[in-house]
């Protein structure tokens, strides 16, 4: 078939889609009016946006300062590392025969107090060996109220922050807290930075202490753009009462003065966004891209203005980013997300005559229907999904991926509005087609297993539901990996079924493995982590372990 004939065929399909959706009637414009009336921006969402703008502006200043002063040679030549074995990354108890992981916080602070005088002597020598005066004041802008010196010795870390880190980052293990004793060394130049690194290395070789970890954040900066180098050192100290030696881990932070100038402002946003950006680097990078696209180069004063502007100017890049930010994984502002999704749908349909991207338009319609369901706008979701399902089947065929996606989302809606028999029938049909056409291990087939299991997840049907959850979990774990969001969703479903069937040990094991992965990938404040935490807390309470449930609720920040 010639290119022109293929183009005419696509144009005909596009026109057919418009007709089948009955766009010329008022349902799509009526939906826009309803969403505009209901989609108010919450105070929480506006606060998040305001902090996002400030955060990105602060990060830009840090990036600009780093571009001027960034120590490229240090950044490229000093590698981050952790010494082996892993036991070096733990604090030591007074009694060496005890298990470090059983230490309580009082024991950590007792040894920290014993170590502090020697640590002060060590880091003072380091600064002197680097050719700096520990007491010399660092000069900043006269309008900036900061008084610092080349050596800043901090008091012992506050117990409140220590407990927060132990709960959120260290799984409740006090011995993993390595920065109760800490200091900052501030340098002006790359040469001075190297001299501090050399002094640390020389003293290690002489046995005064051991450098067990280095984080070169000049090379891999924090999410807020701040750059420094962190060294963890094990300092040997002798107990006065029994003359026995114990080693305590302390932290030496090395800063560049040009960047410290901006740290006080950036730290405000660091505190605000610490939970949002917790998790692994890839997840943080993805979120950063979304924030940058939402805010744009010339930020509006409010989120409301940003949404209205992106809709009015047809800024599809910003609209897509807003949809990600407002949607399920971040702010869960579903009604606002529906409004943004609606605009993307109408834009796609308007441009079909110029760019017949039929699949894209249908995918957006399915997405809109799903968001309407999540916003509890069931009547509107029914209209969108039923029309999309009929149009996709007529144009693309009943076995096309997008048609089956529309069927799946429509079936989920049916279950939520208690049309259970219709839902189960449609889910089973969709699963059968996907198994036959796409294969038993295709992600869409596994999705059908998952949602059919959810529909069957009712009293009296738990045994019937479990094989579908198990199949979805094992298939996703194999195909997508254990840390994929879909895999963890299936793990949650499987654990809930085991809990309902009284298989508490199995359920607890799955919940704990899942929440560990979610904490590492997303952080404690993510909706998915809280969902698993809530399920696990419920299981613990069923088992009469109320104190453990309360501790978990405190750690995850459950209501």
TrEMBL record:
GO terms for molecular function: kinesin binding. It is found in: Cytoplasm. It comes from the Eukaryota. GO terms for biological process: guanosine tetraphosphate metabolic process; microtubule-based movement. Its main location: cytoplasm. The keyword Cytoplasm applies. Coiled coil: none annotated. GO terms for cellular component: cytoplasm; kinesin complex. Keywords: Cytoplasm, Repeat, TPR repeat. The keyword Cytoplasm applies. Gene3D superfamilies: Beta Polymerase, domain 2, Tetratricopeptide repeat domain. Pfam families: TPR_10, TPR_12. This is RelA/SpoT domain-containing protein.
